[in-house]
Each structure stands twice: as C-alpha cells, then as structure tokens.
Fold:
Amino acid sequence: MTPGKAEKRWIVGVDLGGTNIVVGLVPIEGGDVLGLRTLPTDSVRGAKFVVDRIAHMVTDAIAEVVAAHDTTRDAVAGVGIGSPGPLNRKTGTVINTPNLGWRNFPLRDLIANAVKLPCTLDNDANCATYGEWWLGAGRGTKTLVGFTLGTGIGGGIVLNGEIYHGCSDVAGEIGHMTIDSNGRKCKCGNYGCLEQYASGPAIAARAVEGIEAGAESLLEEMVDGKLDDVTAATVYEAAVMGDPYATEVMKETAKFLGAGVASMINILNPEMVVIAGGVTRAGDHLFTPLIAEVRRRAFRSAQECCRIVPAELPGTAGVVGAAGVFKKENYGSM
Amino acid sequence: MTPGKAEKRWIVGVDLGGTNIVVGLVPIEGGDVLGLRTLPTDSVRGAKFVVDRIAHMVTDAIAEVVAAHDTTRDAVAGVGIGSPGPLNRKTGTVINTPNLGWRNFPLRDLIANAVKLPCTLDNDANCATYGEWWLGAGRGTKTLVGFTLGTGIGGGIVLNGEIYHGCSDVAGEIGHMTIDSNGRKCKCGNYGCLEQYASGPAIAARAVEGIEAGAESLLEEMVDGKLDDVTAATVYEAAVMGDPYATEVMKETAKFLGAGVASMINILNPEMVVIAGGVTRAGDHLFTPLIAEVRRRAFRSAQECCRIVPAELPGTAGVVGAAGVFKKENYGSM
Structure:
C-alpha cells in the first residue's frame, strides 16, 4: 500500500557542487536533516559517473533513514536537486556548467529514472537562499536576499515565500552587479562585478597584493611565506587572531560587499539580507563594518526594516533549500 | 441611482511632481487619456494650495469628460495619485518630499475628502512604470523594470503585473544603485549612484566639463557661450544634429546607464526594460550604444529574453499608472 501525501515524511535534498555532492533527508514539516552524507563530485570521471553517484547517495540515505524510523521508502515524497546553472527548470535541464563541463544535460529526469522518485531542479544558489528562508536565518520573513560568498558570489531572491526566478531562470545573479563600472574584468564578461571584490579568491588576492607591496601581517607566517597559499580562510583566521592587516582587508571586503548589499536594499527593500559562506566565520570583523557601510549608503527607510545576518545552516542550506523547492512545487505551501 | 462597479467607466489619474501637476481620466478598460490638463505645482504657496489645486483639476477634468459623454460623475470610480516619496501606501501619507517640503502629509485622504471619491496613493516613479506596463511599451509583459531619467533617476519594478513595493514601500530605487563604489557623492548620501552619471543634470555637467577642458562642440553656440544654460536636452539635440562631441557624451551616458541596466537584468531577469524621460529623444544616439553596452555586460541568457525599449507614453505614463494602481487595488485584475 502506497501512503497518501499526508503520510509522506521526508524529501531528499541534493546539493550538487563543483567539488562535492551533499545529500540528506529533510522532514516535510521542517526539522533537522537526517542521513546527511558528502562525497566528492569527481566530475572528471564523466556525467554518468556523477549521476550514478548522486543516485547511490540518495538511495543509501533513504535506506538508512527509513530503517532507523522503522518505516518504508514510501515515506519519501521525492527529491529536490540543486545544481550549478544556468538551467531550465521546466525541462529539468542543466544548460551549461563550466565547472562540471555539462551542456543541455537532462539531470532531473536522469536522477528521477535512477531513483524512481519524482524530482525537481533549481539553481544551487537559489536553493541555499531558500533553505535559509525556510528553516534557517530567514524563518518567518516574506522577502529575503541571500549572498553566498565562495569561489564566486552566488545569490538568491525570495519574494513572498517563493524563489524569484525571472523570465529565463537567471534572476538572482547579484554577484554580477557592477559596483565599479570601469573595474576589474570578471569571468562572466562584465567589468567591476561585486564578485571581483568580495569573493573568496578576491579577498585572498587583495590580501596578497598588500603584502607584496610591503604590508606586515601574520598571514605570511601562517603560510610559511608561500603567499600563493593564502586563501580567504587564512585571512579570516588572521583577522580573528587580531592581525591588524587582515582586519583591514576584511574591512575593505565589508566596504565592497556593503556597496552591493546597499544596492540590493535600495532596489528590493527586503526584510532580510543573509550572508553565507566561509567569510561569515570572520564574525564581527565582517559584520560590524558591513552594517556600518550599508547604513552609510542605503535609504534609511529601507535599511531600517532590513536585518543583515549570517546564515544559520552552513553546510546544509543547499540540501534544505533543494528539498524546500520540491515541497513548494508539489505541495504549494510551505 | 449610483451605477454598479460594472458601469464605472473612468479612473482619474493624478501625477504630482515637483514642477507640475498632471491630471486626466483613464478608461478603466484602457484607452486614451481624456480631459488631460497640466498646471504648475507652485509648492512654495503651501500644502493647502497644492491640495486645493489638485482637487480643482480633478473636479474640472471629471466635469469636462462626463459632459462630453453625456453621463454623470457616477461613472468615475475613483482617483489614483502618484506622488514623490518616500510614502506609506497603507495610511496614504507622504513621509517626506524635499521637493515639496512635506513631512508626514496625509495627501490621499485630503484629496479624497475634497473630491468625495475613493483615492489610492503610490510613488510617482512606480506609477510611471506601471503606466508603461499597463497601456504603454510594456503591454502584455509580466515582468518589467522602468528607468525614468530626469532631474534624478526614478525607477519602478513590475513583477507578475503588480508594482513590487518591498517591505516599506521603498523598492525600485534603481537610480541609487552604486555603479562606482568610490564615485561621486549623491544627494541620497551614497557614493557612485547611477543617478550621478546618467540623470539630466549629470549629462549636462559631463558635457560642460569636457567643453571647459577644450572640446569643440555645437553646444557652445546653442547656448550663446553661456555654458550654465547647457541642459541634457541641449545635449540630445546637438547629438541628433550630428555634433560629434555631443554624440560622444551620449555614448558615455549610454555606457553608464548600460552598467545599471545590465545589473538589473542580471538581478531580476525581466522581460523588458523601459527607458523614459527626455533622454529618449536622443533615439539611436542613446539606444544603439546602450544595447551594445548591455550586451557586453549582462548574462546572455538574461539579455536574450529582455527587450530594452523607449517609453511610449511620455507625459501621460504617470497619470495612466496612478489610475492603474487604483484599478489594481480596487478591481484586483487589470
């Protein structure tokens, strides 16, 4: 006997990244992620390998959780997949992902066939933002903008409890708004994108430039003089350890990020801005100057109703949000 | 006998600006504006004067149109008012308009009492964008971003056929997105706002700076050597007349504006961007370099589904959109 919709208990969330695949079961009514597992994507081994790996991870996670709860696979409603884009949500196709080397790849249906469950597909950055909205920092808000600072700067926009996709599923590319129209060339082809100033590699590059120009910093010692080894994480750590130079680099990062956040606040007037990614480990070294910069830049009546907060689900926001997308598309309400 | 909702034929639109008040009757089912009239705002004569002037203009416009159509005042459903902001739509209050010198001014209810008709209040730039969406360049689209280039740069965002207001009615301030984080100080307190590079005064200022630095141009002759008299309009006219320097200034304007438009396309992925204001009189001198700049900057899959077009209702978009807001709020559908 197949249980009805009301008896379904979990949705599987899949967070497919260029480096890792993360899978877990999210309770339909919200709650902690169960059966969480991570494996490397190993995309060099080909698309079929990646699809098989995802399918195995989904199957294993379901088996583990249903056994522990003394129930059956029928308690799982389906699978939400978050993938790098651009993608076509309607057809479930990944149009193009340089990181994985895929083109017009029917990811959703391949997974659905392999695991024999209905699937949805959405953009990874959208899913991370939606996860924070559903069960993380944004619980209870209606309107939220998410910035995810990593190798790039991903973004997502939640309006009235739904991911805003725009007319061709590209909306939310807030890392590619121009904050300096004659600025650094970006991989996307544009100039002066926020991503060129506040992403992980941009933070590391700015830190190294300063040291090469003679700035003194703990950073040099931390990487045994090998400046190529400086990453954004080294910079946060040095800032947290009290290194004045690293603190200065984080302040500068906060200023660039603040220009982008203020623009989003003036444009969308959201209730909340959620900042995700390793950079939030810098804590007040990031948030204090960030909030000050936004105060200096954004319209007062817009900033007064907007909280700027760190993400609460590091590591699982993508899985939670991918499952949330499945829920929204299949159940209508959250 | 009062006619029912179905027998109402017109909505009055009021476009209140710092310089002029424009009033007209818009057919509920769409069509040409009737009884259109314009008078100076004369805000120095005080708020009561302005309210009385609006009320008289509304009453006169209604009288003229109903007489011409052999009907009665009962055929008018109500009045939509567009006003400079920020404002509180719920209470119908203008929070603060430096141009008119008002603070917490209950504009909507004062007009409603004076003309004995229900009224709605929304931001002037939102109304102009909504007018273009309803009966202008944006007819038939779902998602649209409007840029109005004038003394400042106003903006509006229409999502799924509704003005997007954000959580405190501030959304759509796209003239105040930062396109140069270390750039020119803006009146709003921010730095490097788009408005500082592509508004009317910014265009005129850039043109004058170049002439003072030695550039040769028809412009000097057009203002009899009085460079203070150069306005954005003089610059468009000189460009249309073939002046190479003015054409260069318009190209530069298009580049700045293109950075802002591309950011909005990457963020909101709209079906259309509508450019309004006198600047559109420059025609291809603006739109050809603007579209080229956006192509250079925005994500291909976002720009491919987005048309960038001039507004079609110069002079009446604000009136049409203000009436459209009344219709949307009272009738639900458009």
Observations:
- Chain A touches chain B through 52 residues (CB under 8 Å).
